Amino acid sequence: MTSASSRHLRAPRGERPQRLRDRLAGAAAGFAQAPGTFRLVWQADRAGALLLAGLTALAAVLPAGIAWVGKLIVDAVVAASRGAPGAGEGRVVGLVLLELGLMAAAMAAARLSSLERELLRARLGNLVNERILEKALALELRHFEDSLVYDKMQNARREASARPLSLVVQSFAVIQNTVTLAALSALLVRLSPWSVAVLVAASIPAFLAEARLAAETFRVNTWRAPEGRRLNYLEWILTRDSHVKEVKLFGLGPLVLSRYRALFGKFYEEDRALAVRRMGWGVLFGLLSLAAFYGCYALVAARAARAEITLGDLTLYLTVFRQGQTAVQNVLSAVTTMYEDALYMSELFAYLGIPTGGEAARALPPRAPPRGRPLALELDRVSFRYPGQEEWALRDVSLTLAPGEKLGLVGENGAGKSTLVKLLLRLYDPTEGSIRYGGVDLRDMDPADLRARVGAVFQDFVRYQFTAAENIGLGEPAHLDDLPRIEAAARRGGADGVIAALPLRWETVLGGWFEKGHELSAGQWQKLAVARAFMREEAEVLILDEPTASIDAEAEHELFERFRALAADRSAIVISHRFSTVRIADRIAVLREGRLEELGSHRELMEKGGRYAGLFRLQAEGYRE
Ligand SMILES: Nc1ncnc2c1ncn2[C@@H]1O[C@H](COP(=O)(O)OP(=O)(O)OP(=O)(O)O)[C@@H](O)[C@H]1O
Q1: Taking a C-beta distance cutoff of 8 angstroms, is the pair 138, 88 a contact?
Q2: Does any ligand 1 atom lie closer than 6 A to the CB of residue 389?
Q3: Cα dist from 429 to 270, 368, 406, 440, whole Å
Q4: Do 346 and 388 have their domain in common?
Q5: How far is 288 from 199, CA to CA, in rounded Å?
Q6: Using a 6 Å cutoff on CB, does residue 217 contact ligand 1?
Q7: Would the pLDDT of 1 be above 60?
Q8: Same domain, 81 and 173
Q9: Residue 9 lies in a domain
Q10: Beta strand pairing status for 587-592 and 571-575?
Q11: Smallest Cα–Cα separation from 283: which of 294, 273, 291?
Q12: Which of 39, 215, 472, 525 maximizes the CB count within 10 A of its CB?
């Protein structure tokens, strides 16, 4: 990640921007999101956006028209009652019908635009969510292991499906109400020019207060992202099937719930303080605009009493001033909401803009070693440190895996075994040194090409809540429907017995998340995961990261016999804590605190009498009576 973007990521956690200049810069940055948002809306639904714009224009001019007709009605009534020439009931009724027509048009426009907003909201929300998910696919493992990126994702997902539309609707509202206000002002200026100034001036303090509170609300929510995730995590502990046993056994319920309550209470207090301040300012500024209205009302009513203006003019004045006040408030509150929306959008765009492509091949075009048979895999003085960590997870590891060689990888917890696998799959790049496959640096290969050559079972393999056939077929999505291939992979992985016992065999939905799901034992799941790796028939390298942890001893023996036969023409790396398993490997690498401590065949290492020999004997003792 670039330093600029990581600064941006870290900013919300830090100190509050106090200075006015910072605030203004924040506001400008917020509003800068508008063009990007409009582009999103345009992509989501062009026709809908245009229709909404048209309806907005119509709704903008109608109020002034209605107010003017209202004045004409009153004047016509007064004239008719005085028996003025040309005045009569007909004209009055005609004008009333005209007002009815305008009101009906206004109502229809309002309904239609609310319908259009609903439809646009759905399409836009969907588009934004898709973008968020597409981005998640483009992110690399290092992003998922970085809590700051998680916070960004959380902030983006929180409201981003509602905010883009809001930004657009509010912008339209600003335009609509400004046009309405201009039309109403044109009517008002005739009667009393200074009341236009009063109308606008009385609303400005309320606007400033609102804008400030909006910025604060946004910041409170952004700061909360890490705590928000913690809150979700506590919820997750109490509601997930996988956690129930420990929660019950250890009696974790009250503890977790009390932490949940404490966090929630903290959120509530912050929200309450903000809401109370908002209310206080609201009352104060509401009173101010009320005083402005009644002040002007008294003056204009006095003029009507002195017959300086007509009764119709007074009616017009009342309607226009009130509507004008509403329009000013609408503009100001729309601007405030837009500001809030724009700040949220900046979070979304910051998330969508997280630089990826760190996995892209360095060489152009990417280099591709010949396919079809395993090639030598060389680690050349490889050292690796996780981003942001001081400690080395791997230090100066050099070893060469000959084509077709089977390597056993052992070492205590945290020795760096899984990290090595991550580097081999280019989920990370070495901090120092290099890894070559067939003489080509992994960084010069297309990562998709590299990964297509590898079949792997991870320590934390996935239990897909899909059918049994899909659970295996997903190992090679292009062959998801190829049942003979899936059956063959199941046989190799030792999962055929598991399938035979299922009520609907291949069609059985596995796991307990969905209706009619059939739960499996840990070992049965693991057999499926191994079978999934065997779907990749063209794999040149097989990696098994503790594939036997949940499998019983007999099944393990069987698996490894099969594995030896199947992997005959492939290279393989097997990580295991069971030394009885790794002893069948051609050579064994012993890792200790990230360093390669010993390397050799079982016989050689036993003869050497080092760490491996010691640990092997210790385990063997355990089996002896
Ligand atoms: N995502 C990560 N971020 C930071 N440090 C990590 C990360 N994953 C692992 N580590 C650290 O790197 C070191 C090596 O971990 P690794 O998972 O490779 O060990 P391992 O040999 O596979 O252990 P185990 O036998 O327990 O699976 C450990 O000290 C661990 O704390």
Answers
A1: no
A2: yes
A3: 43, 18, 23, 14
A4: no
A5: 11
A6: no
A7: no
A8: yes
A9: no
A10: unpaired
A11: 291
A12: 472
- Counting from 1 in the atom list of ligand 1, the atom nearest the Cα of 594 is 14
Q: Check pocket membership of 576 for ligand 1, CB cut-off 6 A.
A: no
Q: Which ligand 1 atom is nearest residue 391's CA?
A: 29
Distance 414 CA to ligand 1 centre (A): 5
**Last-in-domain residue among 335, 352, 369:** 352
Q: Which residues pair with 407 in a beta bridge?
A: 573, 587
Residue 132's nearest CA partner among 146, 105, 107, 150 is 150
Whole-angstrom distance, CA of residue 601 vs CA of residue 529: 28
Residue nearest to atom 9 of ligand 1 (CA): 419
Are the C-beta atoms of residues 86 and 319 closer than 8 Å to each other? no
Q: Verify that 334 and 187 share a domain, yes or no.
A: yes
Q: Is 419 in the pocket of ligand 1 (CB under 6 A)?
A: yes
Å from CA of 389 to ligand 1 middle: 12
Nearest to 73 by CA among 310, 340, 232, 257: 310
Q: Check which CATH number belongs to the domain holding 571 and give it.
A: 3.40.50.300
Q: Is the CB of 416 under 6 A from ligand 1?
A: yes
pLDDT of residue 16: 44
Residues 77 and 144 in one domain: yes
Quickly tell me which residue has 């803009």 as its tokens. 353
Q: Whose CA is nearest to atom 17 of ligand 1?
A: 418
Residue 413 CA, ligand 1 centroid: distance in Å: 8
- 82 and 210 housed in the same domain: yes
Q: Determine whether the shortest distance from the Cβ of 393 to ligand 1 is under 6 A.
A: yes
In a domain, 495, yes or no: yes
Pocket test for ligand 1, best of 147, 412, 418 (most atoms within 8 A of CB): 418
Specify the ligand 1 atom closest to the Cα of 415: 21
Determine the 3-state secondary structure of 413 from DSSP: coil
Using a 6 Å cutoff on CB, does residue 415 contact ligand 1?
A: yes
pLDDT band at residue 209 using 50, 70 and 90 as cut-offs? confident
Last residue of a domain, one of 282, 317, 352: 352
**pLDDT score, position 23:** 53
Q: Is 520 within the bounds of a domain? A: yes
CATH number at residue 340: 1.20.1560.10
State whether 326 and 395 are in the same domain: no
What are the pLDDT digits (tens) for 314-346? 888 888 888 888 888 888 778 778 877 887 888
- Output the residue whose Cα is nearest ligand 1's atom 16: 416
Note whether residue 139 is domain-resident: yes
For residue 494, give the nearest of 525, 521, 539 by alpha carbon. 525
Give me the domain span that covers residue 47: 31-352
Verify that 348 and 385 share a domain, yes or no.
no
- Give me ligand 1 centre to Cα 150, in Å: 20
- Taking only the tens place, the pLDDT of each residue in 108-148 is 999 999 999 888 888 888 899 899 999 988 888 888 888 78
- Residue whose tokens read 């499996």: 520
- Ligand 1: does its nearest atom lie under 6 Å from the Cβ of 546? no
Dist. CA 582–CA 62, nearest whole Å: 82
Q: Hey, what are 300's tokens?
A: 């204009």
Highest-pLDDT range among 95-99, 322-326, 354-358, 514-518: 95-99
- Cα 447 to averaged position of ligand 1 atoms, centre (Å): 22
Q: Are 142 and 265 found together in one domain?
A: yes
Retrieve residue 348's tokens: 């979304």
CA distances 41 to 119, 338, 384, 599, Å, are 12, 15, 44, 60
CB proximity list for 398: less than 8 A, separation 6 or greater: 379, 380, 381, 382, 433, 596
Name the domain count of the chain. 2
